[in-house]
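Fresh eyes needed here. I'd like your take on this protein's tokenised backbone:
***
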Amino acid sequence: MLFNSYEFIFAFLPITFFIYFYLNSKRLTIASKGFLVFASLFFYSWWNIAYLPLILISMLFNYTIGNSLSKNDGENRKGLKKTFSNKSILVFGIVCNVALLAYYKYADFFIENFNLVTSSNVNFLHLVLPLAISFFTFQQIAYLVDSYRGETKEYDFLNYALFVTFFPQLIAGPIVHHKEMMPQFASSWNMVKNYKNIALGLFIFSIGLFKKVVIADTFAVWATAGFDTATTLNLFEAWATSLSYTFQLYFDFSGYTDMAIGIALMFNIKLPINFNSPYKATNIQDFWRRWHITLSRFLRDYIYIPLGGNKISSFRTYSNLLATFVIGGLWHGAGWTFVFWGFLHGMALIIHRIWSNLGFKMNTILAWFITFNFVNVAWMFFRAKEWDDAIKVLKGMVGLSGVVLAEKYNTIFSFLNNYGIIFDKVTGNIGDGSKSLIWIGFGIFFILFFKNSTEKSKEFAINNKSLFLTLIYFLSSILSLNQVSEFLYFNF
């Protein structure tokens, strides 16, 4: 079930909302939590009920490991003998989680590379990637590490199941911590309907729905045509393709996050901010403080810092940065293009750190321009199904596949024919003529000069203006729901 579908918007969400708060109004707290877990698992199973046993087994396993860590910690304080050390239990838990993720997500990738290196012919497993496995695995690894550190104690499986499965953030994040979620569900104030939260939630949800349905899905047409259909791309087609994907990914994922935050608010739950206008960043470190913030937090706290962070030597710091982002790239997908994308960002962060340590500074506009274009170029490897797809777009972006100008300029600039410039349809290979270029101009203006949903939520007030904007966003999105499309991060 998708957030941007009729069955979710007009059936699942309102039914779940009213039953949850009805049970709470009768002071049936355990029943309300149980119902919310059931509804979340139903939501998860909508795509394929075969996914359900996997997430249930994963939850039960990690709940048991987390409780073992808490029990061992208590025995340690009492001076009792322990069968296994907490570190051994933690390592076992993490290894099992990573092994599960590796089996489903990377088995065929490993087989492919094994066959390539050894000239073998091992058959592929052709496993279907379970929905959200990357997100709920990382979230539960964070829970185990927090339990090991004594920051989390959970003795109630129902509470733990709610923490993992809460449907607004289950499929594609944000990646949340137990300590920032469960106190909210335990608060008696959050068990009654809060009409300001409902209004604000609907407002943010409508913004996210508009981002996905009206903006991201429009850019998707040109990005798909450029990457997957066109055999060659001229200069303008290549730039239109790359920028279309850059904006598609942003509006798709930030749209999902807005919808998740908005839905959770209707249930009086505040999810962490996951986006903060990342395309306004003026350096790559600033970008990662703004883009997919909860993933950046996870990579920092559970990979970069345990590797040593920046506490040892400059060389180790740079090695840790690179390793962290290569792992982050691999987390996104089982392919060398994802690894290379992570490598590019790791190298960019190393260069930025060296630049900053040397005390160099740069003009703000130039810094933004370089950062944005680096991110845009790196996304080509993130999007490409094969290396050749990324190379095709990059060749076009530097003019190696030709330059095409509009036919109407032929009479004025005909002398350019001598330099290999052709006068024809500028973006004929990706469709819609110059419409894509107009939308890209709109996209740049939107990301630079519009307030993001977090900033808008701080100014929110229940009045006619907010009602009008909510209706505009919502109705224009509903009228555009001609073809329901998945969110891009569902693939990761």
About this structure: The first helix runs from residue 6 to 25.
